[in-house]
Design a protein that fits this description.
The structure is a homodimer of 500-residue chains. The first copy, chain A, has 21 helices and three strands. With 500 residues, chain A is mainly alpha-helical. Chain A has two domains: 145 residues, no CATH class; 353 residues, Neurolysin, domain 3. The interface between A and B is large, with 39 and 39 residues.
């Protein structure tokens, strides 16, 4: 092992990491603190930092060092660091600066056009900008390289190794079963109790702090702030920032927002100290990161044992609105299944149908089989087929998400993969943690956090997602555990038998 | 004019500016938002950013561009930009990257050790970190070069062109006169009215927001937050951040903290748009920057006309504590001259004696005549000689300021220079703004802000301090206007005649 060579590599890798941390902190500040008049200046600051990062990734001396390390026998963690940075550097070199600038311009224009289109209820105002973004993404796919399917090159950014040919049958099986379950729930005639009243925001925030603390989130190595859209930023395992939003008329968005973001936050706080500050301190895929937020938000946070532990505290904060509600009623109220046309407000059962819709459409658009002008029609038709209804209008439908406005293509499937991995992981945790649910019902969430930390968080991306999950659970990707979980839970809530 | 050459220079200059903005935002976040466990990681992030800045300043292509521009006929603003960056680049080339990184690390460690030492009331916990910082500053002075006096090289960073040999006689004259005035005040037997009661922090903050708004600070291009030690950071003229601290038993520290920081903030918001984002958007010296905070805090903020305008509002917020106080009594209460051992809470008369104390000690430490371990003893002895008393303990004494904790040496004299320039500037403003004090007594502070913006803020550092002040006032640096101001004000308040 040539330690001088390694030292050169490690210095470059760590510097890049710190620069990324700085850039991401500027982004956090932009969403939480930035004075209104400062956004133009902030844009320039971030752009310069991104340029420095790009320059360093493309530095020929980095390429030389990586090439020289190919001849060295590296221990697995170092090999993973080299593999990771090599992949990033290669990707950066393949994307010329002209393309990067063109994308930034198209994203700005896309966002503006999307806002206008929503305002005016006119999709046609957005279509040309979307066409431009799709063209740039196709160009990106060709620059990065692929085996004939452009969408795979984009998917690979979020889910390394994933292929649309493997995802489509998975989504088809999943959708069929979810449609069936949703229809049976609708046919059951049962309705969930309403939650009504005034919920003081400061008290909601107090409760959210209690929840994330109970989940084992370390507030001396993190924060919980407010922003327009909740998000989590891991600047470093000792500096993990959750944001949340609050509604006075309903505490559920804030509660499940906090639990969801905290699931991400525990991942970011949980990287082993030895990989903190290296490029392994990250999830191997967006889907695995999302599995942590989904596991906590839905599989744990919407369970009856969880609320047996925490509902009394919530009642004490809001005695007028919740004092007379039984915990079983509250549990039902946080597990309603309905017909939301909006993905981010959808329940667990129909959520993945929303994703199936987006996957079908964006794969077709990137393949060139669907033109932007035809998108609203295709959206409404696919929505009817998958969800059983079509949206009232384009704002509620095809224009609802910001992702395409910003030119993000290939990201949606990660949400569903997160749900599927969450169920696989929780099955294994149930097998390995004695009396897991009884402990949850006493508010003891740390055993689960410890299990996840050891199995998933600590190793970061030393291994890919498939290997990480298999090492933790013995299982590979499958829709079955997730479906079994849904049938068990909603079967009981709505008095259904899976049958068939 | 070779526009391609200029474009290259300007791009480099602006990128450096954006990188500095990013680094300073990380510093602001450290003082206001950073989770306790994250300070080590933050230290590394800042260090890498500083290294990038250093690398770019030392880039030979920048030196070549600057050399090539020497042959061009540049308009004055561009010439000033080149002069400024040339000076910075020269300084940076003299400081090796290893030194820069070591300083950043030592600063982070120094700050942490200082906090621990204050907590534990143990100076010895801070002494080793201070020793390390002083060694780095001596090394810096030698690297930068000096004419035999290391302290001059450090002073020059804050006050370009200043020399300790010139400052010491100025401080000696000033100290003698201030000691005399302070003793006469003590001998006058007059006591200032006490301010007592409970002052809810949220209301104090409301009042501070009203004050800074009345001073013309734009809160859509800035913020007012809390931190342990008040400070101001200008990320950009559209993003200027003030911080303040609050005491429940006395509103004065917060009020004058806010006015002081706002004085700095108006400078940062006041740079002409054409120089925003360039290296001219800064004061030519720390002393001139400080003149703005001092002018507002003391010469305006502690004046009777100011409180004629704003005392009724303060009374309304705190009717129990202040309802029965006359404005003249409140004016006297904010102009008490006493024996504060804490510089930032000292009155105008003894304040500069605190600075004389620090100048004497830090000059001795840098010269190697005083070791960190001997510092508390020397502090107490010098305090007795200059101020007439010594502090109760080290937290109240040698550990009170953050500057040495952060390794800032050579900075303290700027505070006194600020006081002297403030008096010179206000004399000129009184001559040029019709009915200035009557307008102040009606709460009209904008005419003064406009005069300062035009004369001092807008040009930034196109000219040096001496030239800027002379262009604004026709006067050069002198202690006389400041002393005349003090004798007039305190003579009246305490019934004294300057005599002699």
């Amino acid at each position: 092992m040539n330690e001088k060579l390694w030292g050169d590599f490690e210095g470059r890798m760590r510097d890049l990491r710190e620069l990324r941390s700085a850039a991401s902190l500027l982004g956090w500040d932009q969403e939480t603190c930035l004075p209104p008049r400062a956004s133009e200046a902030r844009g320039r600051q971030v752009a310069v930092l991104e340029a420095v990062i790009h320059e360093r990734l493309c530095d020929p001396r980095l390429a030389d060092t990586i090439a020289a390390l190919a001849g060295e026998a590296l221990p697995p963690d170092r090999a993973a660091m080299v593999r990771q940075l090599s992949r990033e550097a290669e990707r950066a070199r393949k994307l010329p600066e002209a393309w990067v600038r063109a994308l930034a311009r198209a994203q700005s224009a896309g966002l503006a056009a999307w806002r206008q289109a929503r305002e005016a209820h006119r999709f046609d105002l957005f279509a040309p900008a979307l066409g431009k973004l799709l063209a740039l993404r196709r160009e990106q796919a060709d620059l990065l390289g692929h085996g004939g399917v452009r969408y795979d090159a984009l998917l690979d950014i979020y889910e390394p190794g994933a292929r649309v040919a493997a995802l489509q049958p998975l989504f088809a099986r999943l959708s069929t079963e979810l449609r069936r379950l949703a229809e049976m729930i609708a046919g059951s005639g049962r309705r969930t109790p309403a939650i009504e009243g005034r919920f003081e925001v400061a008290r909601q925030e107090t409760f959210c702090r209690e929840l994330v603390t109970a989940m084992g989130f370390d507030l001396t190595a993190g924060r919980l702030d407010r922003s327009a859209h909740p998000f989590t930023l891991g600047v470093h395992p000792t500096d993990v920032r959750l944001t949340n939003r609050y509604r006075e008329d309903d505490p559920r968005p804030a509660i499940f927002g906090a639990i969801h973001e905290c699931g991400h936050g525990l991942y970011e706080q949980g990287f082993a100290p030895v990989i903190a500050g290296t490029n392994l301190a990250d999830a191997p895929s967006f889907g695995l990161h999302e599995s942590q937020s989904r596991l906590w938000e839905n599989l744990v946070g919407r369970s009856l044992p969880f609320w047996r532990a925490f509902f009394p505290g919530l009642q004490k904060l809001f005695p007028e609105a919740l004092g007379n509600l039984a915990v079983e009623e509250f549990h039902a109220a946080v597990n309603g299944v309905g017909h939301s046309p909006v993905r981010v407000e959808a329940d667990e059962v129909t959520y993945n149908l929303h994703i199936a819709l987006r996957l079908a459409l964006e794969a077709a658009m990137i393949a060139g089989d669907l033109e932007p002008a035809e998108l609203p029609g295709a959206w409404n038709e696919t929505s009817r087929r998958l969800l059983g209804f079509s949206p009232r209008d384009d704002v509620e439908g095809v224009l609802q998400d910001i992702h395409w406005a910003w030119g993000d293509v290939g990201y949606f499937p990660s949400y569903t993969l997160g749900n599927l991995y969450a169920a696989i992981l929780l099955d294994a945790a149930e097998r390995e943690i004695p009396n897991l649910w009884e402990r949850v019902s006493h508010g003891e969430l740390l055993p689960l956090r410890e299990w996840l930390r050891r199995k998933i968080h600590a190793p970061g991306r030393q291994r890919d997602t498939e290997e990480t999950v298999r090492a933790a659970t013995g299982e590979g990707l499958s829709e079955r555990p997730f479906l079994a979980y849904l049938w068990a839970k909603y079967g009981e809530l709505y008095g259904l038998a899976r049958g068939r």
